Predict the 3D structure of the following.
Amino acid sequence: MNINLSAVIIDAGELEAESAFWHQLLGGSIAKTPTHHFLRTDGFPAFVIQLAPGHVPRSGRRATPSKCMST
């Protein structure tokens, strides 16, 4: 059985900021609706950033310089 990944869905409390982050990271083009941003990039599945009011990212998900540097 073959499985093809066609989309990655990302919840975002701040739709514009989250889609801007992924767009800057991956490039491509964005199509926007009031509740969803669709990022298309060659070689990647579609990234769908959806508005999730009240969404709070899990703590510790983003690397900070202190976590990246060895002591």
In short: Strands lie at 7-12, 29-32, 36-40, 46-51.
